[in-house]
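the two lines:
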Amino acid sequence: MSPDPAATAPAAQRGQGVIHNIGYRGYEGPRLGRSYARRALFTQSLRGAYGLGRSAKSKVLPMLLFAVVALPAAIVVAVAVATKADDLPVGYAEYVLMLQPVIGIYLAAVAPQAISLDLRFKTTPLYFSRPIERSDYVAAKHAALSAAVFLFTAVPVLILYVGSLLAKLDFGDQTTGFLQGLVFCALFALLHAGIAGYIAALTPRRGFGIAAVIVVLTVPFFLISALQGIPLSDGDSSSTLVGWLGLGSPGTLMDGIQSKFLGGTSGFPTGATLTNAQGISYLVVFVLLAAGAYALLLRRYRKAGL
Amino acid sequence: MFNPTVARLTYRALLGRRRALILCALPLLLIVVACAVRAMNGADDQVATQLLGGFALATMVPLIGVIAGTGAIGPEIDDGSVVYLLAKPIKRPSIIFTKLVVATGVTAVFSAVPVFVAGYVLNGNSQQIAVAYTVAALVASVAYSALFLMLGTLTRHAVVIGLVYALIWEALFGSLVEGAKMLSIQQWSLALAEKVAGTGADVTSDVALPAALVLLVVITVGGTILAGQKLRTLTLAGEE
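prediction for all of em together
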């Protein structure tokens, strides 16, 4: 806005300073609101989990781990095609469980990046000064982490499925197996992302977050697997005990669920299948763990100072 | 070579405040499980080797090694406070040596001692199993500390790379690909345990003892020298 010459001329003659009214324009455009902010937080966190929109250096690790988890699937398919097998050498859910250490490391690298860094650089107050609530932030971060892990596990499963169709394996069998595999991936992602997210939210230090996530995800798994491998003198009670022990770690919990409900083969040392009572308690523990991790994460952000 | 002040600072960085409690959790878990197994199953050599070899030496020792080894130098480089240490008239290799001694000590105390206790609880050191695994844990903690300390000076992602080595290379590939076992600190230290344990005990390694000893010395000395060299030419990177 140019100043009005008629108004400024007498002021200049008097030799005094002037204050120009250049006007203040309020923002009148559309306000995108809470759900838009939530969606943006979700997509940014999800992209960040694969290093998209970040520096080239931070793309290396997620992409490398993704290659590590996807390549064996292609090899499995190649083997199935070459040997003209009637079935894939590895089941869909079984494949995911086999590569658990890789998924654990991926989560350990990604969860602190998505969650701890906001705490470390104190950006959470900035988020909460926007029209989002605590629950929106937690929901967006949790959903982003879950989606990242789901993609991480579902893509290899998809490769297996496409490969099995190319190898002309039985269509009906493979489709059921594939769908069960996808359900498994979703459950797996929900549980593991919840646990890793909560642990990452406990510490603002990235290094500690990585170590803590990996410890919680893998140590119980190795411990329970070692315990399950111990043969008891009484064979009958041994195989039920193996089932109950499996409740003790996220990995064995998922193994039990897939072998009982999703038509997979059990990865337990004795190949034990679960009894009905065990199956139900596996589901109950799964729901408790998944919901509990989410509730704890929600609670973590209750305090304003963090 | 050894600088007491650097040692004290490193020790405080590793075990100060709540961190000692977190590091305690793993050994405690091992001892509790050992007690439970003994109470339920009685003394059994096979169970002892399974638990000590399958859990303690395969998971616990490398994890504590990663935490102590990278934790001795990683966070300092990460937040840039290492410049205050580097500005002091102390030789860089002696900083690394001191940090290695502290990291090794912490790893050994938190892994070898509980392994020894758990071994005694599990079968009362029959066939020297407890002693064998304790020796293996001690040797492994030196090598792991040197390796992960070196990683800590080389890269900002030392924790992740260390975990990839410990969990994917040693545990996953080691069980699938025979050749991967040749390059595994776990197998090298098991070679020593095989020598110590009684002949009836099922402690086996895929690496011959002389080769294992040479490789252990090479990785420890080489890792320390390389870390010292790296620290001499360290450039501090900003936050990504």
